[in-house]
Amino acid sequence: MSAPLYTATATSTGEGRAGGRAVTDDGLLDLDLAIPTSMGGPGGATNPEQLFAAGWSSCFHSGLKMVAAQNKTPLTDSTVTARVSLTKTAAGGLALSAELHVRIGGGLDQAAAEDLVAAAHSVCPYSLATSGNVPVTLTTTVA
User: Fold this and answer.
1) Taking phi first (over 0 means left), then psi (-120 to 50 degrees means alpha), and beta for anything else, what does residue 24 get?
2) Residue 140 in contact with residue 113, Cβ under 8 Å?
3) Distance (Å, whole) CA 137 – CA 124
4) Long-range pairs for 38-47 at CB < 8 Å and ≥24 separation?
5) Rounded distance, CA 20 to CA 126, Å?
6) C-alpha to C-alpha distance for 38 and 62, rounded to whole angstroms
């Protein structure tokens, strides 16, 4: 593996997802953490799944823009929405699943849009890191 181009550093303190805090070394991200109300927690703060969804959606969107540029495909009015779910496993543990909803405007046809999304999924570092570990559903909509 080559030398890192960038390394993000974040530290979690307190009770983790149950009332902790997450802070990056540069201080740009400084968040309280809480268990969502849907899981019996107090809510009112972010949680690791939201942070993961935000990171994955923005990384995937960058990958989508990159592959479109490489293919000389005009890409306008695109959005990527990531839904990251936490589920119980049969053994009583917890697991993640994800849905990536990609919307592409600009008159691109459905097949071309789906090809771009598949290409983005093959280069996005989050998609690559979770491949084979996290079930992912890709949905492509043209507008």
Assistant:
1) beta
2) yes
3) 15
4) 39/86, 47/17
5) 24
6) 31
Residue 25 CA: distances (Å) to CA of 17, 37, 71 = 19, 29, 37
> To which residue do tokens 């929405």 refer?
81
- pLDDT bin (cut points 50, 70, 90) of residue 121 is very high
Query: For the CA atoms of 105, 110, 116, 117, what is the dihedral angle to 10 degrees?
Result: 90
d(CA 79, CA 101): 8
Whether the CB-CB separation of 71 and 116 falls below 8 Å is answered with yes
- Among 138, 56, 64, which Cα is nearest to 106's? 64
| Structure tokens, 42 | 């107090």
Q: What is the dihedral of CA 111, 115, 117, 122, to 10 degrees?
A: 160
- DSSP one-letter code for 4: P
For 21-68, what is each residue's pLDDT tens digit?
999 999 999 999 999 999 999 999 999 999 999 999 999 999 999 999
Two tokens at 142?
Answer: 């043209």
- Residues 120 and 59: their CA atoms lie apart, in Å, by 9
